[in-house]
Amino acid sequence: MNTRLFAAIAAAAIFSAQAAPAAQALKTAVFAGGCFWSAQHDIEHTPGVVKVAVGYAGGTRPGPNYENHEGYLESIQVTYDPAKISYPKLVDAFFHHIDPTDPDGQICDRGPTYRTAVFAADPAERQAAEQVKAQIGKELRHSIATEIRPAARFWMGEDYHQDYARKNPGAYNAYRVGCGRDATLRVVWGGR
To answer: Is 108 labeled as catalytic in the residue annotation?
Structure first.
């Protein structure tokens, strides 16, 4: 009986030791891609992305919320596995889900809250994001309005905004079609 108990404890310890490094290996990145419902919906299907939360970043006043987030950008916090997708490839995937040439918002969502940005956590991320941005500019043959900003605190959005497209598919699809998001992105990216 003690042998079985010892074996179970040893197996649990080995499993725990193997699982902990995997969880610790995950990283986060913050992007502002216009409407955070669409930004979440589009990036969460990228291989290597583990979780996406919506919220607010880039402002200075504490405690932003949906009714009062002046100075903030609607943003997403992407948890990803760098063993499956590199930071530059994640930034590239983000760019391919937005219109990076639009300085005034995204598609039908206009104004400062809906501008696009990459929030770089350190100089290496900033350099990688700037390189991706330059490559996107060459690819589109257009100046890129998406800013590369220093990391800012990410404030979690309200529960009813989290996974909005999954929880409210009819309402979200009506918004997406009415906004013309997919048609606009096809024009911007031309099937790329």
So the answer is: no
